[in-house]
Fold:
Amino acid sequence: MSFYYRRKLRKIGRGLLESSEKVVLYRRDVIAAKDLNEQLEMAELVRANIKLRPREVIETEALLNRFHAVLARNGGKIYPVSAGTDYTEMIIMAAIVAGAIRSFFLQPFKIPTNSMWPTYNGMTAEVRQPSDEIPGYAQRALQLSQWTWTHVVDAEFEGEIAIPIMEVESDHADGSRKFMPRSPNSVPGSGILGSGFFRSNENQYQLLIGPNIQTIPMPADFGFDGVLLRTFFPGEAKLLLRKQDADRWQEVFRRAAADNRIQRGPLGLMLLTGRKAHVGEPILNFDILTGDMLFVDRVSYHFVEPSRGDTFVFRTNNIPGLADQYGRPSQNYYVKRIAGVPGQRLMVNPQGQLLIDGKAPTSPEPVALNNRQAMDRGYFGYLPEAGGYRYALPLNAEYTVTPGHFFAMGDNSANSYDSRGWGEVPAADVVGKPLFILHPFTAHWGAAK
Structure:
């Protein structure tokens, strides 16, 4: 017999030995002791035989055939190997490899909010006027590949549209009243296509149409107030103001108060928009663009310390300022920019500049653009406060970052709840740095900033 045939038999023998080990591992407890011992003895004979090259080929063939018969008797669904078993093992191994990559090397992460806009996008909206053309089905299908969903809300009632609002504590220098749109109700969502699967919370907003209330459900992290602003007050929505939409709304309320368009209705205070609704006709027409999906590099920070100016992803379960009202830790992951590392002194001056150790940094680019207040590029400067109370660290005065912690801030300072509001990030909870934006295929696609 040829050398190549003997080598083939040795390969078959090694394959049978591998199968034998799997049968013992998965079926040892259900195989009779006599049959198991026979299999183990046959395995030792095959292991010894395939190592002895001068053995007769016919003898080796016969031994392998007997070993196959024993495995077929003891193997159940493990042996003989079926295509289904092969695919199952392949899927399991792929899952193990993917899990290892996610745990130790690369982790996918979806940007949830717009606190880092315009560096990264959370859910944003492209708003059309209600009378504008609605995208057709073909265009909507194409948009779905970019994770863009078209929303058209038709009026359920007849009458003037009004937005429920509430009065808040005024910080206006002239002592004038201050308002904001009424907060939505948060309720459990209905899941994918109403199936109940993968349920998450949704916000229910309300509009008044005449004396009637129309409820509009929206994703929990979506800034629906911006849609209302751009639909009903497009002129004010274009103003370049320091606090962006927050200041734009105040301009809306200032003009509305002068025109007596803030009145009381079924839900309390309401802002009359001056728009009339007709049953079955659109009152809102907009697209929701989902947030950027990126890969997080989990390796680099094991070898180098995070630096001031880096964007980073971190766990929030050890940040007391993010616990809920019952003291339960947050389970979310956040992405922010490191404004300061241990020992650095931070402050936001009256000009909206972030100062590090008394100086305005010129890098990275988003920090420099914010310090210049490049509003035409979406950078409106820094604010010293971000709300919060017990754990807030406002930067009206100089603050020194404590050892073992980082001070996190969002590039979209006016719309970022960060270390100014809930305190510092423990260094032990840093997960990694954004590496690559893989979806959607917009101008952000590619290496993360």
